[in-house]
Specification:
The protein is 36% helix and 25% strand. With 247 residues, the chain is an alpha/beta fold. It has one domain: Rossmann fold (3-Layer(aba) Sandwich).
Length: 247
């Protein structure tokens, strides 16, 4: 479903640029969840934003279900690939109701039956229909992140890009969101790419883990191999040892 080959992304001007992603390559099969892990600044979120069309690569190629993802995307490609941002406090407009936030993508893509679709989207993420008339400040952090997930899902995408979706939430709410994502992966057969610095969170949702360091993917492994300490790269070993759940 997702193909990334030799992706390179740099920021800044010539002579003073920083290479955020350096020759990254990976594949994600349909219905699979892949986790990207690494320390802050390793290039994880930059890859996610490039796939979403928010960052333009300097070299390499990206593909979605056999089609090239270029700098100009078709509406079908944009609908098929949706991004869920990290911060539930910042990703929703404070002066717009939840109904407005969920209506906007439907309006952009010319999709009708908006009231019914909004009610169904809220129900799918475990929120009652009356939440559509509330503002973000009237919801808890977990409820806001559920709304953000509903907004990503309302276009019925094939691929969901997750940028640290639980890092701003407390532990109990993290578990609720992760269980919800696991359920949606199975029922919708969604393909997911999840960025996180938390190995336990990635292990809960993903069947494979790609480890990044200084813009490069240094190892691709599985949660079971991580738990058993069967790692090949020194950086993967450092990440594992720094996570209480895997040490």
């Amino acid at each position: 479903m997702i193909e990334v080959d030799d992706l390179t992304i740099a920021f800044g001007k010539r002579g003073s640029h920083v290479t955020a992603v350096d020759g990254a390559s990976f594949r994600i099969a349909e219905g699979e969840a892949l986790g990207l892990v690494g320390e802050s600044g390793s290039g994880k979120s930059t890859i996610l934003r490039a796939l979403a069309g928010l960052v333009r690569p300097d070299a390499g190629t990206m593909g979605l279900d056999g089609e090239t993802l270029g700098s100009v995307r078709s509406k079908a490609q944009r609908r098929a690939l949706q991004l869920m941002f990290q911060d539930p406090y910042g990703s929703l407009h404070p002066n717009q109701t939840i109904e407005t936030a969920l209506s906007e993508p439907l309006a952009i893509h010319g999709i009708g039956d908006r009231p019914d679709r909004i009610t169904a989207a809220l129900a799918e993420v475990g929120l009652p229909a009356q939440h559509r008339f509330r503002y973000p400040h009237q919801l808890s952090g977990g409820q806001r992140q559920r709304v953000a997930l509903a907004r990503a899902l309302i276009l019925e995408p094939r691929v969901l890009l997750l940028d640290e979706p639980t890092s701003a939430l407390d532990v109990s709410v993290q578990a609720e969101i992760l269980n919800l994502l696991t359920h949606l992966t199975r029922t919708r057969r969604l393909t997911m790419l999840m960025v996180s610095h938390d190995l336990a969170v990635v292990a809960h949702l993903c069947s494979r883990v790609a480890v990044m360091s200084a813009g490069e993917i240094v190892e691709v492994t599985t949660p079971n191999r991580l738990a058993a300490g069967e790692v090949a790269h020194p950086h993967t070993r450092i990440l594992r040892e720094s996570a209480l759940e895997f040490s």
